[in-house]
Amino acid sequence: MSPANPIIRVENVSKHFDTVAALSEVDLFIEPGEKVVIIGPSGSGKSTLLRTINRLESITAGSIVVDGFDLYSPSVDINKVRMEVGMVFQSFNLFPHMTVLRNLTIAPQKLKKMPVAEAEAMARRLLEKVGIPDKADVFPVKLSGGQQQRVAIARALAMSPKIMLFDEPTSALDPEMIGEVLDVMAALAREGMTMVVVTHEMGFAREVADRIIFMDGGRIVEEAPPAKFFTAPEHPRTQKFLEQIL
Ligand code: ADP
Ligand code: MG
């Protein structure tokens, strides 16, 4: 599948760690506003693929163009790219010595030279949006895992990214907190954000994804809209994986 005007264009990408082929000849084109969910067994290359879209990883072959930036060309301004692509990890990675508000304002102030009043007003709007407007002045250690992850999402949004990447954002959470984080992500999806999400939450995948990508052994084995993916997967490896998890 090759949309007319992709905002993310991954072409023939391979990535080796010594002898391990983490990615082999991956092609992936994502349209603006599209929601793509990536699933697959542990070690199949999901995180590596996501990380290459933010150039957190080098690649061995191929090319990745994000919103017109050729990520692996020597002349690319990687800081500009990273402002456009927000990323949320399994471990929340908040700055522990800063209040929640400061976690949200520091990057816009430093990287975008946003005035403090403007940054703080935006941060408060974002905390409202992720459902914790009352936590602005507390430190991350005082928050539950679900609240910390919602702060991490708000912090990524504070840079006004065009694309959000999520790498198993709920995998480190207690079960009762998974829903509140998925709800924030679903709301973001409804607003039209371009999202690439690695997750094991199949309910979320079914409801939010435009397209599901199944990876195994560093390759995209199958991709389809959720209705087809979950009811009529074509590849035996996809069928086996779904049998194991559903
Ligand atoms: P997934 O996210 O699907 O579990 P990863 O992308 O993390 O898979 O890993 C894909 C493969 O690359 C695995 O075999 C993993 O061991 C290997 N790998 C990932 N990161 C590194 C690294 N920094 N050094 C060496 N091998 C790595
Ligand atoms: Mg991973």
Automatic annotation (TrEMBL):
**Domain named ABC transporter: residues:** 8-242
Q: Which UniProt keywords apply?
A: ATP-binding, Nucleotide-binding, Transport
Coiled coil start-end: none
Which Gene3D superfamilies does this chain map to? P-loop containing nucleotide triphosphate hydrolases (3.40.50.300)
Keyword Nucleotide-binding in annotation: yes
Q: What SUPFAM superfamilies does this protein map onto?
A: P-loop containing nucleoside triphosphate hydrolases (SSF52540)
Name one molecular function that GO assigns to this entry.
ABC-type amino acid transporter activity
Its family? Belongs to the ABC transporter superfamily.
Q: What is the name attached to this protein's record?
A: Amino acid ABC transporter ATP-binding protein
What species was this sequence derived from?
A: Desulfolutivibrio sulfodismutans
